[in-house]
Design brief:
The protein has 361 residues and is of the alpha/beta class. The chain has an 8-stranded parallel beta sheet with strand order 1-4-5-6-9-10-11-12. The chain has a two-stranded antiparallel ribbon with strand order 2-3.
Length: 361
Amino acid sequence: MSRRTLLGGVAAAGAAAAIARPAAATPAAHRRESVPTGAYRIDMHAHFLPPEYRASLLAHGHITIGGYPTPDWSPESAIDFMDRYGIQAQALSISDPGVEFLTNKEAIDMARYCNTYAADLFKRHPTRFGGLAVLPMRDTAAAIMELEYALDTLHLDGVVLLSAYDGVYLGDPRFEPLMLALNARSAYVFVHPAAIPDDAKPKLPLPDFLEEFTFDTTRAATLLIAGGTLARYPNIRFQLAHAGGTLPFLAHRIGIAAQTPLGDIWPDRVPRPSLLDVAKHINNFYYDTALSPAPSAMRSVLAVGQKERIVFGSDWPFSATTLTGSGDPQPELSETFGADRMQIERENALRELPRLASAVG
């Protein structure tokens, strides 16, 4: 284990405690009026670590994920967490590093194991779990085959992709065949950030989940726009983790780049986005609230996106350090959405995942 990895893990323990939510400015009485009661939330950013997957992570040296100590997970602990925080169901996904820490054949087998585990889980607990398929992304043909199996045979609810694989970001032409397959199925795709290599980022004693994850989500979203992926494949519904990273803040800046001399050197055969194109694509992303429920984040999303495309996310079990009690997991949402919280925390998600919607009723 490198000194940097060790420092990141130590920093994560302190940082997780330090980012506990501040008290919301909205009066408590108003918050109670705005928040529905009961287990109604649908968690669109929740992770699972099946036993063989977690064991393989640890065996390959992944004792931290994004600088956060690799957590324990079980269906029982997930249900306990949901019961404590008024969550009816979670759409489970594999977090960084996906299955790409394994060799090609091992990655293909591990993806099948994780996807089958998810399908078995929502068969045993149909009203509590959904699942997003992880794909072996180093082999595009294998990724498409696993996509077909996961959606057609296992009936998973969508797909999770990392922002980048081996330094290659979504939006790169290498992913074109997969994007074509996702578009043909109008797939729901959750984009989760990936840790970049130590030699490609500043040597700061901070865990990746604090800042680097948000930057990597922004890179992936920007390249999906700039490379023309969103224009070519409009049926794919992309959900960006953590309120889109820094994308809402940079939305105008990214748009004007196409109107500057940078636009004159745009790659050949790649559509040059206009200010209006960029605004349209940013508006069409889905954004989750994981670790980002504060008004500073949510109002930024509303400034460039649609309220109908904001979904609740807990980031559990990676948020377990800050979610140790019960009640309202993100009271800050009332400051931005008030009486519309049911839409944000339930209705928007179920509209996009019909199989899960049918199961939970």
